[in-house]
Amino acid sequence: MAASSSYTIVEYFGGDDGYRCGYCKNEKGNFSHGMWSHAMTVQDYQDLIDRGWRRSGKYVYKPIMNKTCCPQYTIRCHALNFQPSKTHKKVLKKMSKFLSKGEMPTGLCDELLTPLIHSDFEQYIFSFYVLSSPFHPPPPPPLPGVGPDPGRPVCRKAKDLRRERRLQKDQKRQQESGSVPTCNPAATPVPPSQPKALEEFIDESLPGSPLHRLEVRLVPVNDDDPQFAATYEQSAALYACYQMAIHGDAPSECNESEFRRFLCDSPLEAETSPDGPETGYGSFHQQYWLDGHIVAVGVVDILPTCVSSVYLYYHPDFASLSLGSYSALREIAFTRQLQKQSPKLCYYYLGFYIHSCPKMRYKGQYQPCDLLCPETYVFVPIEHCIPSLEQSRYARFNPDPDAGDKKVLKDLGRLLVLYRRAVMPYAAFARKRKGSNDEAEVEQYARLVGQVCAERILLYRA
After folding, report:
1. Whether residues 215 and 296 fall in one domain
2. Reduced to 3 states, what is the DSSP secondary structure of residue 310?
3. Residues 94 and 210 reside in one and the same domain
4. Which of 4, 275, 306, 460 could lock 41 by a disulfide, CB 3.0 to 4.6 Å apart?
5. 2 pLDDT above the threshold of 70
6. List of E strands, 128-256
7. Range of the domain at 451
8. By its UniProt entry, which InterPro entries does this protein fall under (predicted)?
């Protein structure tokens, strides 16, 4: 990857105060270190997430793993070796049925959103993205009775029907050829067929002559990009609809400014490289267009060695289509596509894995996958980590008891500082600011980012 001519510039905030945990709802149990990023190169962010950092907008944070109530472990999937599970295949089949036959889940927006409409903003969101939606179904007609229809045949399992069809086909072929099946134990066994690739399952979920058409478009998060600007209002309305319906947010928590701060403002500088993907590196929205309307948006960062998932929001009417799982499968396939252009880009990062929160364990189903050791910053296969997490919320995963952080801070004086528009080593800054009392804070920051990043990232000093 070509070297970037720009610098990463951050302000470090420490992490002494606890705040409310969104997972276990502990009011003061969530502890993390944080810093504001004015600008960031994709290589610096790649190195930071490989040390347990993540971004929310321009705010970059790292959980204090041995102190926080719900330790959050960085998780990555080996995209090239990923094979969809039975659950994943069901998700793709569900999408296929919807696209080909129009089997749509029951509308949710009326019952979820109507109690929340108390202002002009809420009415705008409701009318813009719910009542005007061509996918918002009318209420179902009243049923004359309840219970199963005695006139219908008994429902049978799909696997039993498939087995019966296979037997019928075999019998038909044998009858046409006049042959009788024989048992020959000495015959050479037929080698098992190769499992179908993820892309084949995705292609099967997109039928050739569908009732509905689904298209995924990659849009750079950039106000100067025509497609991003043209779809901004529609995307912001969808975000508000999702947050109010699915997460019960108040309008003030998901208005346009919050949407921009959370999912549009990114510190990552867009970069291109001769050995990089055609899309370039940076922050993007993957828009899912259904029959000309945006129904879901996946926010992703494309980095030197991975695609990093940031967030997903979608139209509430499609909640039963498991769009979270569907978009993750599409993003894994997208990672594999980028890897053909850039060999180093072979991982899919799913954010944080939280074993102490059962709802967050689903991320471990995208295998093979690794968790980041919080002490030595090496990735360890998740199956080796689970036994430790069953014993304790916080655990060191590296099996080598003598292993340490290879990028541990060794020389604080070489850390780079931005002071009065001048870049200088911390040793020179300390001489200029005699009697400065910030050494403990600066050293804490440097230990968290590691020696390599400390010598490359500019720490802003007022």
Report:
1. yes
2. strand
3. yes
4. 4
5. no
6. 214-220
7. 415-426+441-462
8. Acyl_CoA_acyltransferase, Arg-tRNA-P_Trfase_1_euk, N-end_Aminoacyl_Trfase, N-end_Aminoacyl_Trfase_C, N-end_Aminoacyl_Trfase_N
Would you say residue 23 lies in a domain? no
Q: Alpha-carbon distance 309 to 219, whole Å?
A: 15
The Cα 137–Cα 110 span in angstroms is: 10
Q: Are residues 321 and 419 in the same domain?
A: no
CA nearest to 294, candidates 129, 161, 179, 441: 129
Structure tokens at 315: 């139209």
pLDDT value at residue 17: 80
How many Cα atoms are found within 13 Å in the side-chain-facing hemisphere of 108?
16
Nearest-angstrom CA–CA distance, 149 and 153: 9
For residues 321 and 94, the answer to whether their CB atoms sit within 8 Å is yes
Cα–Cα dist 430/409, whole Å: 18
Q: Residue 238 belongs to a domain with what CATH number?
A: 3.40.630.30
Establish if 312 belongs to a structural domain.
yes
Rounded Cα gap, residues 316 and 313, in angstroms:
9
Task: Put the strands of the sheet holding 32-39 in their side by side order.
Answer: 54-56, 59-63, 32-39, 9-14, 458-461, 416-419, 422-425
pLDDT at 437: 84
For the chain, state the CA radius of gyration.
26
Alpha-carbon distance of 112 to 136, in angstroms, equals 13
- Of 156, 86, 92, give the one whose Cα is nearest residue 323: 92
Q: What is the pTM of this model?
A: 0.83
Q: What is the mean pLDDT of residues 394-423?
A: 96
Shared-domain flag, residues 304 and 450: no
User: Whose structure tokens read 């890897």?
Assistant: 339
Verify that 420 and 343 share a domain, yes or no.
no
Tell whether 346 and 450 lie within a shared domain: no
Query: Could you give the CA distance from residue 227 to residue 232 in angstroms, rounded to a whole number?
Result: 8
Confidence of residue 154 (pLDDT cuts 50, 70, 90): low
Per the CB < 8 A criterion, the answer to whether 294 and 287 are in contact is yes
**241 Cβ contact list (under 8 Å, min separation 6):** 109, 113, 125, 126, 129, 130, 315, 316
Q: Is the pLDDT of residue 144 over 50?
A: no
Lowest average pLDDT, out of 105-109, 176-180, 279-283, goes to: 105-109
